[in-house]
Amino acid sequence: MTAELSTAAVPLDEVAPDAVALIRAFRDGGGVSFQDVPLEQARAAYEAGCAANGIPVVSLERVETLQCPVKGGAIGLRRYHPGTGTGSGGAPRPVVVFLHGGGWVIGSLDTHDRLCRRLAAVSGLDVVSVEYRLAPEHPFPTPLEDSRAALEFVRDKAPEYGWDRNRIVVAGDSAGGNLATVLATDPGSVVNGTTIIGQVLLYPVANLLDESESYARIAEGFPLTADSMRWFRSLYLPDGQTASDLRVSPGLRSRADFARNGVPAAFVVTVGLDPLADEGIAYAGLLAHAGAMVEHHHLPRHSHGLFTSAGLIPTGAKLFDRAANWLIELTNPTKTIS
Q1: What residues form the membrane-spanning segments (predicted)?
Q2: Helix (H, G, I), strand (E, B), or coil: what is residue 22?
Q3: What whole-number distance in Å separates Cα of residue 28 and Cα of residue 31?
Q4: Is 303 a residue of the active site?
C-alpha cells in the first residue's frame, strides 16, 4: 500500500477530531499495515506502537510475573495489584483476567501493560494479564486453551492472592475480546470451581466465518483493515474450516443457546471505522436479547486500536476509565461512582 489512497478510503474529515492526526500520520507514512511486512517486523512494530501511543504508566503497589502451567510447558501471567486489600487476609475480592489483542498473532504482556495498570488502579481490582501462545506457531485452539489454563490458575491460586474464584471478570480487546467472550459463554470452556460474572469486550472479534459490510467499508487507510483481518484469520485458522466453530465465532451462537446457558453481564465497545464494527454491534445485541445486562458504547468516527493508542486519543482513555468504573459497579453494586 502506498500513501496515495484510492477513493475507497474513508476521508479524514469523517475521522474523530482527536484521532485524525494519528490516522493522517499513518497514511502519510505509506499506510503499511501488519500484513504488509514480515511477521517478526509486524510484532516489533506493534510493540513499539503500543509503547509510543499508550496511556502513561501508572505505579501500583505490586506488579509481578507468574508462571502458569499449560500443555507442553508454561506461559507467563502478569498480576497487577493496586494495593486495596486483596490477599491481605480480608474477604476474597473479584479478579479480572485480561486477554490482549493482536489477532492471536501479535501482542504480549508488554503491549497491554499500561492498560492493565490503569484498569487495576481505577477499578481497585487485581488484574491478571495472560501471555497466551501466538499463531502461526500455535494456531487455534492453543490461545484459547492457554486462556482457559489461566482461569484454572486463578482458581487454584485464589486463596493465596485473595481472589474470589466465583467473581471473575474476563476482559480483552479485539482477538482478546474474542477469547474473553468464549470463556464467558461457551459451555465447553467452563472451568469447574469458577464463576464468570462479567465480560469487558473492546471491539471484539465475533465472527470469522462471515464478512460483514464493514469489511468492505474499511479496506484501506487504517492500521487494521479487511485484509489485516484476513491475514490474522489465515494464521490463526490455517485450515479455514474451523471458522464456523463457536469457540472461534461466538456470534454464530443462537439466542436460544445463550439464554439456555446464561450470559454474564457485558461491557462492549465498538468503533465505526473498523472491519469488525458490524459483527461487534450485532454481538452486543445478541447478548442483550439473550437476557444479559449490556452496556454498549459505539463510536462511529473512531477506529480499531483506540485503547492501545489512548495516550494520543483522549476519547480512548476516557472510555477505558468508564470500563473500569463499570467493573466497580458490577462487583460492588452499593458503591456510587462520582
Answers
A1: none
A2: helix
A3: 7
A4: no
Angstrom distance (rounded) from CA 278 to CA 211 = 9
Which pLDDT tens digit goes with each residue over 5-51?
545 799 999 999 999 999 999 999 999 999 999 999 999 999 999 99
* DSSP states of 110-160: TTTHHHHHHHHHHH-SEEEEE-PPPTTTS-TTHHHHHHHHHHHHHHHHHHH
- Domains in the chain and their CATH numbers? 12-330 (3.40.50.1820)
Is 87 a residue whose pLDDT tops 60? no
Closest by CA position to 143, among listed 104, 110, 187: 104
Annotated active-site residue in 33, 108, 147, 174: 174
Nearest to 71 by CA among 142, 156, 153: 142
Confidence label for 100 from pLDDT (cuts 50, 70 and 90): very high
DSSP result, 171-184: EEETHHHHHHHHHH
